[in-house]
Amino acid sequence: QVQLVQSGAEVRKPGASVKVSCKTSGYTFTSYYLHWVRQAPGQGLEWMGWINPNNGATNYTQKFQGRVSMTRDTSISTAFMELSSLKSDDTAVYYCARRDSFGSGSLDFWGQGPLVTVSS
Amino acid sequence: DIQMTQSPSSLSASVGDRVTITCRASQSIVIYLNWYQQKPGKAPQLLIYGATNLHSGVPSRFSGSGYGTDFTLTISSLRPEDVATYYCQQTYITPPTFGQGAKLEIK
Prior knowledge:
The complex is a heterodimer of chains A (120) and B (107). Chain A has 120 residues and is an all-beta fold. Chain A contains no helices and eleven strands. In chain A, strands 2, 4, 5, 6, 9, 10 and 11 form a seven-stranded mixed β-sheet that branches. In chain A, strand 9 and strand 10 form a beta hairpin. The termini of chain A are far apart. By secondary structure, chain B is an all-beta fold. In chain B, the strands form two sheets. In chain B, strands 2, 4, 5, 6, 9, 10 and 11 form a seven-stranded mixed β-sheet that branches. A four-stranded antiparallel β-sheet of chain B has the order 1-3-8-7, with no helix packed on it. Chain B is globular, with a radius of gyration of 13 Å.
């Protein structure tokens, strides 16, 4: 069965960086785009960007340009999202999610989402 | 960016009720509209994709409709396990954007 298992909760100080992993199984890693979506406490869902695991191509939303880096390691079917220059309002749950194969662009499987807390 | 507006933002209904949540896009998104259910403390789960298609394993009491700018998620007969926040998402134009969510509670 399809599974996306993410790394655990993190605490960082303002100005630091955090790297979240997303280990996939149950499907061909290179065949599906992976998206990253975050959710601040008590708030809605915010799309951050995607990576094409086949060739490493990425697309980031403008808000995070220059601060976010999405990478992958095909040998271990794992994607990574690194966010730098952290601020307190980056405190959020960070989800990875697989884009569907239906052509609709929906996100059909999600990781459990670790909480990243940014606090001095 | 395309703005997605859901209504109502919160609602309360009784078990067995028919429940409808609407989602309006700021411009036409054809049928590129998806619905997700998020239970407290859990990741979102896909319910409906392409406006009307039920994702595998989703109960048939959930259905979606709409085209262009106006879309609807319907629960035909509310069950206690449907307590959740529901989000719509457009995937017609990048960046994909979500509605603000509709929190559903049981009376």
